[in-house]
Write a structure and sequence with these properties.
The complex is a heterodimer. Chain A is mainly β. Chain A contains three helices and 24 strands. In chain A, a hairpin with a 2-residue loop joins β3 and β4. The longest helix of chain A is centred in the last third of the chain and has 16 residues. By secondary structure, chain B is mostly helical. Chain B is about 65% helix and about 0% strand. Chain B contains seven helices and one strand. In chain B, α2 crosses α3. Classes of the chains: A mainly beta, B mainly alpha. Chains A and B meet through α1, β3, β4, β5 and β17 of A and α2, α5, β1, α6 and α7 of B.
């Protein structure tokens, strides 16, 4: 999601009281600032749908002074804009603050925000903001009335079914005993390297614009943003080998190409191969929007005859030179 | 990119590279003055060759060239040309395809969570990273 919404908040207040002030606040910026300035600790439930199966998992979260740590089956830490993961051999800097985008595109005009009725989450009164795109409810955000912390977030599919939810089951806010997580010990730095975007599409479907291009571990990572949500397009040279794809991945068709789709706690992913490239598209947007974005990715379907001939001539020359 | 792009520069100028490969070459060019110079030289040479005026052979050139050549010699040249073309075709068809790639999907979704959490709400975007998806086959 983007850092600062354009405040296209439509005050369609269904309830009363605290919602009146919600319409003139930027909910995401409010949540971001609250997460950076408010000490809190609690237990969060994650729910996500994969096909017809709904999964649930709980994690512990603790944050103060601009940092927070999440402890689930592994630990993840945010320190400012640095993002770290704890692997079996120690902490790894996954995303450095230097890679964060400095600006975002204008929000897709199809977005609308409505203040909904109030709610109570984990015992805390919250104001609700409904996010619509192209007239369809995409998300509901529940923000703590006092601190602005995002207490619950629901994401829906095109047909209105709940696809993912993240919610505090228990939370203590402004507890003075909560301190910032200690700095991790030795950190591995396999950080992404920024690249120029030459040759990569600037715009994809559904209002997404290119925000940055990076390379890490031989994979090209192109970030697109529609002013509210991010999607990541990963490109690798080669032909698709399904070995690492989840067993439960579902077959989908991307244009006339075979692809696979699967969910994880944070969103949806699509994998397909075209020509000499394997594409992986990841985002926490409805799956039909992800497919629309995938369809707009220009692909090289086959190795060109010129390329094959060039390779063949090179092989012949190498053969005559005794290189083979 | 390992090593210099070499004749891939020519493919870059022809617009035959896909986005991944083109980005790799551009990345290399940013750091390699020699390859930038080579790219410039290749581009200049193409421009120069394309700018040459067409040359008409003198009257009777082809007849004089082919006249003394005996039939068997022409057949031999044709056979050699056919053989060379066949060799290129065979090698082109037998050139191994691209290497298989298994996307490290767990790693990729982590990278997405991390990058998305720096532009959106950090808590809700990055929390899923603590629950690595089980992608067991």
């Amino acid at each position: 999601m983007r850092r600062a919404l354009g405040l296209v908040v439509v005050a369609a207040v269904v309830g009363a009281g605290p919602l009146a002030g919600a319409a003139d606040r930027d909910p995401i910026e409010e949540a971001r600032q609250a997460a950076e300035t408010t000490p809190f600790s609690g237990v969060v439930s994650l729910q996500w749908r994969d096909g017809t199966v709904m999964h649930t998992e709980q994690v512990q979260v603790e944050g103060a002074d601009g940092s927070f740590v999440v402890r689930g089956r592994r630990a993840a830490m945010a320190r400012g804009s640095d993002r770290l993961l704890q692997e079996s051999d120690g902490w790894e800097l996954l995303w450095p603050s230097s890679a964060s985008p400095s600006s975002h595109p204008a929000m897709d005009p199809e977005y609308q925000f409505r203040a909904g009725s109030g709610a109570v989450v984990a015992g805390h009164p919250a104001h609700v903001v409904e996010v619509r795109k192209e007239g369809v409810v995409r998300e509901r955000l529940y923000l703590d009335d006092d601190s602005g912390l995002l207490l619950r977030r629901e994401q829906f599919g095109e047909d209105g079914t709940l696809e993912r939810a993240l919610a505090f089951d228990r939370i203590a806010i402004q507890e003075t005993s909560v301190t910032a997580p200690p700095a991790p010990g030795p950190v591995t730095r396999a950080v992404p390297q920024p690249l120029p975007g030459a040759g990569l599409p600037f715009r994809l479907a559904a209002g997404y614009q290119r925000q940055g291009v990076f390379r890490a571990g031989g994979v090209l990572h192109v970030i697109y943003n529609d002013g509210f949500s991010d999607v990541s397009l990963f490109e690798q040279r080669g032909r698709l080998d399904r070995e690492n794809l989840p067993a439960h991945a579902r077959r989908v068709v991307v244009a006339d190409l075979q692809g696979w789709s699967f969910a994880w706690p944070g969103g949806q992913a699509l994998v397909w191969g075209a020509g000499r490239t394997v594409y992986t598209l990841v985002g926490d947007v409805p799956s039909d929007e992800l497919v629309r974005v995938a369809l707009s990715v220009p692909v090289h379907r086959t190795s060109s005859v010129a390329h094959r001939l060039r390779q063949a001539c090179r092989s012949l020359v190498e053969a005559f030179n005794g290189d083979l | 990119m390992n090593g210099h792009p070499g004749d891939i520069l020519s493919a870059l100028l022809d617009g035959e590279l896909d986005a991944v490969e083109a980005a790799r070459v551009h990345e290399h060019l940013e750091a390699c003055a020699d390859c930038r110079a080579e790219l410039e030289a290749v581009g200049a040479a193409r421009t120069w060759v394309r700018g040459l005026p067409p040359v008409e052979p003198p009257f009777g050139f082809y007849e004089r060239m082919l006249g003394p050549v005996r039939r068997w010699a022409r057949a031999g040249v044709a056979a050699l040309a056919a053989g060379a073309a066949a060799s290129v075709a065979v090698v082109a068809l037998s050139t191994p395809g691209e290497r298989p790639v298994a996307p490290p999907v767990g790693r990729l979704v982590d990278a997405h969570s991390a990058s998305a959490s720096t532009s959106g709400d950090p808590l809700s975007e990055f929390t899923p990273a603590a629950t690595p998806a089980s992608f067991d086959r």
